[in-house]
Design goal:
Length: 191
Amino acid sequence: MAILKSNRLILRPVSIPDTGRIAALLNDWDVVRMLARVPYPYTLSDAENWISGLQNTAVPREVYVIDRGAGAIGIISLDLMAEDQGGTQVRDLGYWLGKRHWGEGIMTEAVASITHHGFATLGLERIKSSALLENTGSLKVQDKVGFRTVGEGEQFFAARNDKLAVRQVEMDQALWATLRGDLADRYGLAG
């Protein structure tokens, strides 16, 4: 897996030394309540199991630590969803950021970076994502990077033990082609 660099960030593969930091950042209700698959409380054992699962999977995954030079502050990923009916590989974009880093534009830069990587390096045709309708921060990130809304739906959120309303978005190669120059210039994306 590549190391991705932008103006302020390094997106690098997750490693065992990140375990404690990930556990600490995710043991925060304000973060976890917005994430579909993460339990709460989130323990060191949960982080160890998650990282171990990343290393022992046959499914192609691009999972990165978001780092500003002092260790993990969040995670961003492109997970293989499936192929659509036309045989196009589709990846699911997921992300979270430790609460003390909210509102600094970090996630917008990270999403632009991994989206650029997905299209320029991985040759993806389409990237999909979703966010809780109440998660205004994530909705703004998706909008700023240029994802288009394709609908609404429901998704199960483990920490809340409930199905909640989400906005579904996507970006394809054609849309990315209209946005990449501006985003590459703004965030220092190479390639």
